[in-house]
User: What shape does this take?
Amino acid sequence: MLRSAVSLSLVVLSLAAGSARAQESQAPEVGFSSIPFQFFPPGARSLAMGATFVGVADDATAAASNPAGLIILTKPEASAHGRFTRFPELSRGGYRSPASSAFSPSYVSVVAPKKPFSFSAYYQQVSKIAIDRSFSGEVRFSSESAPTGFASTSRIDMLLSDLGVSGAVKVGSRVSIGATAGLRRLRLDYLNENTITGDQSFSDRAAADATDQTLVFSAGVLVNPNGRLSAGAVFKRGGRFEIPYEVDFEGSIDGPVSCPEAGLCAGGPIAIPDTWGVGFGFRPSGEWLVAADASLVRYSQLSRTLFRGIPFDIYPPATNDLPPAPFDDVVQLHVGVERAFPGNPLFLARAGAYRRPDFNKDGGVDAGATFVTFGGGLVFGDRGQLDGAVSLSGEVKEGLVSLVVRF
Assistant: This one.
């Protein structure tokens, strides 16, 4: 399922297994279709406000959110971010996924304003996943077929990261534009094993352990007509990768289709979804900020991911009902608020939420999820800022800490 966003910002899919549906009508989706692919904004401030930032973009993370916002920065600054991720244990029907957690550096940047331009160099961990998924039970491969035993396991260890440069320039007193060019790197360790028992027994194993990289870009615009209201738009290219894989199989079903013979196969295509985003920021007073974003995420580009088709593509399907259904493009909605409390240091409280619709409506995996976010920050005059954020959902718990130092 890796061909998601980033992500935006990624960089996600959830597993809410429809086990009853799978047992009554079709084989459960396995491989990439049952692996969450997460995209999150790089900054704790953004995440705490419901992952909004396209229409605000007023700190160093603008390089990855909306590069046009870099022009707002008036002093050189450096920032560093760390992210804690926990996937809770999931056991539902025949599906099982053990809990996993990790902490790692997620974003590092430097910004150098030089009027009328502003420049940035950055590293971003777009998505990092280390997770296992399994299914065991009886399924029907079509409404007419008899139940048959089916067991599947999927393991993925994936890191999607960017090393890039950004620039922004004012094109009027109220308008700025910006762009980013980066080298995106995909590191993938993938394993999927499946066993079918019954009249025609069959087992297969598909694995990949490789790295590929490609150039990606983003472009954005930010408009601030009166100081209280701002609006922005951004496009982000997800990138395309080729990962070689191996397939081994045995049993009475002829195959595989994707490989001329068992062993090393041609590179499997993986496309990270492109995204379009629009956002607004409203400042009713000096103490309040309200933000809202809408992002079109091209999840349909994941439908052609070869690994998502395993095991369906490595042997002829019994019926047309067997291959996974295509994904849908969806619009994600984000809202957030920030409240400043004057003092020394200045304290900021933030909260928000966003919804990822189900883009796998015809499949056995519910990809929809709702995220609730909150956090706070301390601003130490012109010297720097410390922010923290938490994101909670049924599929993943995230914690993010950001430190900014200004010169």
Remarks:
- The chain has one domain: 19-406.
- The longest helix spans residues 19-25.
- The helical segments are 19-25, 44-48, 62-65.
- DSSP finds three helices and 18 strands in the chain.
